[in-house]
Write a structure and sequence with these properties.
Elements: E1 3-7, H1 14-26, E2 31-35, E3 41-42, E4 48-49, E5 53-54, E6 63-68, H2 74-79, H3 81-88, E7 97-101, H4 105-110, H5 125-130, E8 144-147, E9 150-153, H6 158-168, H7 197-220
Parallel strand pairs: 1-2, 1-6, 2-5, 6-7, 7-9
Antiparallel strand pairs: 3-4, 8-9
Helix pairs in contact: 1-6
Length: 221
Amino acid sequence: MKKAAVMLYPLFSMQEISCTTELFKFYDKEIVTFSAGREAVKSEDGFTVLPDKSFEDFCREDFDCLILPGIWEPLPVMLDERNIRFLRQFCGDESIVIAAISSSPLLLGKAGLLEGRRFTHGLFEEFLDAFPVVPREGVVRTYLVEDGNLITAHGGAFREFASATGRRVGIDCPDTVFSGMAGEEYTEEDFIFHFPPEAMEEVRADWARWEEEARERIEQR
């Protein structure tokens, strides 16, 4: 299985892609994060993240999708030419899924990846007027649009964004994979969970090993 690349930049929205990355993790799809110069970046909610690799270390053959989270302040990210250079390599490459949510289509527009494409976004109309890098003729006023290898979504459609992106990379998941639980009828049995016996044996073995390693560290102090 090929890996998933996630592009990170200052004030990225972790929340908007967390369902997507959780889905990948559940199905054992490896995720690799990239940023300009492998610089640590702070998410919009204040978490500091050290990306795995810099853009220069990106190996196209290893990946089948690129995920772009939304951005609290997109203009400084768009003006960082390192981000745009990284994205320009995908112009004309329809063999990789590019999934962008909320304000991140602004980066795709700057890099020329929206020309002749249908897409949606979560940008203010005033941004589109002031920074005309997004081709208006391609905008579709809805929550999620798939056009060829391109998936774009409004920020509020983070669940639908996750399931659409997952299906495009071969994950068999329903639209409701991240639907809420309110309004459904449940019994107590619905909240009793069991772990497979053979897997539980592995957990016990790991626990014993970790206990032994912890004892050895204490003795060495």
